[in-house]
Amino acid sequence: MTNWIDIGSLDDIPRRGARKVKTVMGCVAVFRTGDDRVFALDNACPHKGGPLAEGIVHGHSVTCPLHNWVFSLETGMAQGADEGSVATFPARVEAGRVLLDAERLAARSAA
Amino acid sequence: MTQKLVVVGAGMASGRMLEHLIDGQPGDWDVTLFNAEPRGNYNRIMLSPVLAGDKTYEEIVTHDDDWYATRGVTCRFGEKVAGIDRAAKTVMAANGDVLPYDKLVLATGSNPFIIPLPGHDLGGVIAYRDLEDTERMMALAPGQKAVVIGGGLLGLEAAAGMAARGVEVTVVHIMGHLMERQLDEAAGFLLRRALMQKNITVLCSANSKEIVGENGQVRALVLDDGTELPCDLLVMAVGIRPNTALAQSAGLAVGRGIQVDDQMRTSDADVFAVGECVEHDGALFGLVAPLYDQAKVLAQTLMGEQAAFVQKSLSTKLKVTGCDLFSAGDFADGAGREDIVFRDPARGVYKRLVLEGNMVRGAVFYGDTADSSWFFGLIKDETDISEMRDTLIFGPAYQGGSAVDPMAAVAALPDDAEICGCNGVCKGQIVEAINGGAGDLGAVRAKTKASASCGTCTGLVEQVLALTLGDEFKMPAAQPVCGCTDLTHEEVRRLIKSQRLTSMAAVHQELGWKTSCGCHVCRPALNYYLLADWPLEYKDDPQSRFINERKHANIQKDGTFSVVPRMWGGMTTPNELRAIADAAEKYKVPTVHVTGGQRIDLLGVKGEDLPYIWADLNKAGLVSGHAYSKGLRTVKTCVGKEHCRFGTQDSSGLGIKLEKKLWGSWTPHKVKLAVSGCPRNCAEATCKDIGVVCVDSGYQIGVAGAAGMDVKETERLADVATEEEAIELATAFMQLYRENAKYLDRPYKWVAKVGLDWVKERVVHDLAERKRLVEAFELSQSIYRKDPWAEHARERAETYQPMADLTLEAAE
Ligand code: SRM
Ligand SMILES: Cc1cc2nc3c(=O)[nH]c(=O)nc-3n(C[C@H](O)[C@H](O)[C@H](O)COP(=O)(O)OP(=O)(O)OC[C@H]3O[C@@H](n4cnc5c(N)ncnc54)[C@H](O)[C@@H]3O)c2cc1C
Ligand code: SF4
Ligand code: FES
After folding, report:
1. pLDDT at residue A110, rounded to an integer
2. Are A39 and A76 in contact (CB under 8 A)?
3. Which of A88, B528, B615, B781 is most buried when burial is the number of CB atoms within 10 A of its CB?
4. Which of B:588-627 have CB within 8 Å of A?
5. CB atoms within 10 A of CB A64
6. Domain residue spans in chain B?
7. Distance from first CA to last CA of chain B, Å, rounded?
């Protein structure tokens, strides 16, 4: 079951940027791309824990600010030669509001 | 048996539906058609050509009096339906008449959205929806002024139509580029340029604040930055909302629109809805193509036939003469999605296809839309394009034959084919030069001037070289900026200046970027080049900066930040030290370190605390030390003649003056200075980017030193007698470096490339050039010499906080 919760307005996230959302299990990075789509990923890079919310967003990818690994925002997979992946969470925009799936966010504490 | 059909709204959807219905079952229906507008069906989308003067209203009427009369349709135009009684199956007209129906069709279209800005109810503030609005715009006289809020399809058509009548039009658009829903940034840039050429002023990223008036009439629009745009008419074209009031009051299921199923039936089995007023499967509609499909389905449903409405891909064109654009499908980037981008800067053409698997999902074309219907077909039919992938972007003419090899294409060119448009050089002249000994690009350039101006034909010239020389030709190993382009940093810098490219989108388009919006390698470089070359025109893009420069602090390995306030010339005061100590305690800073740059670093500050620690430091007069920037870092000094027994000049005083002059400026890489009071050189000035050593007779100015990954002594730029001259030379050197170096080249690397003599010529000997450099630097500093900490603490503190905190919720 999905339980969409409103975490704020799309305008609160800069285009080609991200904001953090705090959860009990650590931070989730919520990204907004150049074409106004939103994606939610774990805010910790699988390499050395870099905060992905601080990375440069290009196309539907983000570059980790610490050592430049590039991740797909859609799948969470590392791109190019690097290997690893970040957990992704359902996110969507409705009427200018950003919604995350509370069930899935909570589920990762159980997993 | 005839059935009574009441239709509310005579718009494009209901008009088409009636055609299908009456032609399909003539005589079966007793139709009454209401319309709030005092006229029958006309082609609303052709209001724009009417506005522009290309058509008259009479030419766009789709159903005239005769049409309704011969088909027995009772017309009640200029009459609104005021209510519906579903239990009694009647409608009530505005004048109180009650009419029974067997079947009811709602086709009420939509209402233009009016932003409730202060002053929105003044006279002369209109929307763009119907003939009345169009006539208001047509009534403006040449030379009068109009402002259009909204840079979407409608707003631009309104703007172009009025501009064609000699009205002075300004378009105010809130987003960063025009028609952002249909176009990507590159196409938006081309469109904006074309509109500017039609004398339309286009302001993007512009927020409207209020409309001001005089005697109840609009006088001007005021933006939130204070800009006032005078106008005689203000047109709001910012979107539409389905017109659902009637349906809602009748108790029908209404979401954002009137909810209908695949048969266009509402929550009441005898009431149907069609057109822009409906919501189908969560979607709303704003273009006629799907409405026509709905109209047909509705007619079939009424006639008892099986039919279902299916949503399809949509395409858009803008009806503005000279602006050829087309967009279709879904052109967002995505995993598994690939772009094919084709740009022809000379013709102003941009084409982008978005592929997924072996199918075309979306397309954006600007400048050449001749093949758009073919591409739209590929999207709609989900055609497998794997066979023609390599040549797909060139359109249908290239399909089916052999694949086009660019080399073969150049080989096939006749000798008199022009290769370099700027200098009028044809293929034959280039071949002749090569046969005469010009063995590489530089030599061909020197001899023929081909590719020596704008440089966009460089690839073609290289192909001619390769063809003529065969195996002897070695492609130059110049390093492109990144995978998004084949151009080098130097070429990009030169072209940004020579072609006056003042935005990222302009660079991407005019220089043929291969990706839609660049990557983490090219964006920071382009952002620097643009702000350095066009300090007034270009607006710095924080999202194209590395995190340190975006948040004005150095990111640490654990995601915390370090904070280094400026200590001018390495000097400090008890008051500053106290403020730093207080801040360190208040924000629980784990590490306080005295840096190698004569100042204090607070390490391990939480991102959320940054704006607050800055505000505290600001109170003691401390500003950002830019320890994170490709910009001016520290100016180290020794105590000099004020205290030291060997000091020859006031070295710390000069250091402070230099730092106050240069701070805040952005540079290709970081820049560090030092001023020592005598040749003992305690401030280590001989290994800095710019280092001044004071001597009895004045100041020795060295440049291009380093003490990082390479250790290199400075080279002497000049010896000068006064502090003023020392500051002037340092400033001119900074600016020359800012204007010419490749992003991420420290000054010593750049000087090694251009030669110290070249630098001396401009900074020391050519006095006019020195003056120009100093002035250009000051111009840029008029924008950038400010404390970013104060600005962020004041205006953007909330962006440093998490957007939401869900830990509290989960605890409940
Ligand atoms: C804080 C400091 C060390 C210290 O605690 O003393 C320091 C810290 C860093 N230096 Fe440095 N450098 C510091 C003085 C120096 C000096 C000494 C100096 O300036 O006199 C040098 C050699 C002089 C020179 O630059 O030529 C120096 C040469 C470098 C280099 C090599 C640059 C080069 O061109 O070779 C890098 C790497 C880079 O910039 O790409 C670097 C990069 C860094 C970075 C920014 C690494 C990074 O990207 O995260 C470090 C940031 C730490 C942090 O989070 O704050 N740091 N760094 C010094 C800050 C000075 C200040 O007050 O702003
Ligand atoms: C200037 C302009 C240019 C456009 N260009 C294009 C284009 O290039 N391509 C494209 O695909 N689309 C274009 N559109 C959009 C297109 O015109 C609409 O999608 C289409 O007209 C919607 O048709 P409709 O029948 O749903 O509504 P409408 O055509 O708006 O008809 C609804 C009618 O219902 C009447 N009405 C409302 N409530 C009541 C009531 N209670 N009682 C009686 N009558 C009522 C209204 O007065 C109106 O006449 C354009 C629109 C405009 C305004
Ligand atoms: S030398 Fe500079 S870059 Fe290297 S660890 Fe020390 S502070 Fe960091
Ligand atoms: S922590 Fe992300 S790339 Fe190293």
Report:
1. 42
2. no
3. B528
4. 607
5. 26
6. 3-110+242-302, 125-238, 489-545, 631-786
7. 65
Ligand 2 center–CA B27 separation, angstroms? 27
Q: B667 with B734: CB under 8 angstroms?
A: yes
Min mean pLDDT across A82-91, B335-344, B618-627 is at B335-344
State in Å: Cα B336 to ligand 2 middle.
Answer: 38
Residues 6+ apart with CB under 8 A from B707: B684, B687, B688
What is the number of other CB atoms lying within 10 angstroms of the CB of residue B135?
A: 13
The domain total for chain A is 1
Give bridge partners of residue B339 from the DSSP assignment. Answer: B354
B599 within ligand 1 shell (Cβ under 6 A): yes
Please tell me the distance in Å from A47's CA to the nearest CA on chain B: 11
Strands B145-149 and B168-172: parallel
CA distance A108 to B418: 63
What integer is the mean pLDDT of B672-680?
97
With H, G, I as helix, E, B as strand and everything else as coil, classify residue A3: coil
Q: Across the interface, do B810 and A106 touch by the CB < 8 Å criterion?
A: yes
Of A24, A59, A75, which has the smallest distance from its Cβ to B517's Cβ? Answer: A59
* Cα dihedral across residues B34, B37, B42, B46: positive or negative: negative
A35–B520 CB contact, under 8 Å:
no
For B125-238, CATH number? 3.50.50.60
Q: Pull the structure tokens for residue B665.
A: 């400026």
Please tell me the distance in Å from A58's CA to the nearest CA on chain B.
5
Q: Is the pLDDT of residue B455 over 80?
A: no
Q: What is the mean pLDDT of residues B112-121?
A: 93
Q: How confident is the model at residue B453 (pLDDT cuts 50, 70, 90)?
A: low
* Residue range B631-786, CATH number: 3.30.413.10
The secondary structure of B238-287 as a DSSP string is S-EEE--HHHHHTT--BSSSEEE-TT-B-SSTTEEE-STTEEETTB---S
Q: Tell me the Cα Rg of chain A.
A: 13
**Would you say B472 and B442 are in contact if contact means Cβ atoms under 8 Å apart?**
no
Task: Report ipTM (2 d.p.).
Answer: 0.73
Supply the CATH number for residue A97's domain: 2.102.10.10
Can you give the pLDDT at residue B416?
A: 76
Contacts of B336 in chain A (CB under 8 A): 74
Stretch among A60-69, B391-400, B516-525 having the lowest mean pLDDT:
B391-400
Give Cα B591 to chain centroid, integer Å.
Answer: 41
Distance from residue B538's CA to the centre of ligand 3 (Å): 34
B125-238 has the same fold as B3-110+242-302: yes
Distances (CA, A) of B270 to B22, B72, B294: 19, 22, 17
- Cβ of B597 closer than 6 Å to ligand 1, yes or no, is yes
pLDDT at position B718 is: 96
B694, B677 Cβ separation under 8 angstroms? yes
Distance CA B131, CA B133 (A): 5
Q: What is the pLDDT of residues B364-413, one digit of tens each?
A: 888 877 777 778 888 888 889 888 887 788 777 666 544 445 566 677 77
In one-letter notation, the amino acid at residue B138 is M
Superfamily of domain B3-110+242-302: FAD/NAD(P)-binding domain (3.50.50.60)
Domain of A57, in residue numbers: 4-107
**Measured between CB atoms, which of A37, A59, A106 is closest to B516?**
A59
- For tokens 């207080």, the residue is B582
Answer for the pair B633, B672: CB distance below 8 angstroms, yes or no.
yes
How many interchain CB pairs under 8 A, A with B?
Answer: 116
- How much is the pLDDT for B311? 87
* Nearest residue to B249 (alpha-carbon basis) of B228, B271, B269, B230: B271
Distance from C-alpha of B185 to C-alpha of B181, rounded to nearest angstrom: 10
A59·B176 Cβ contact <8 A? no
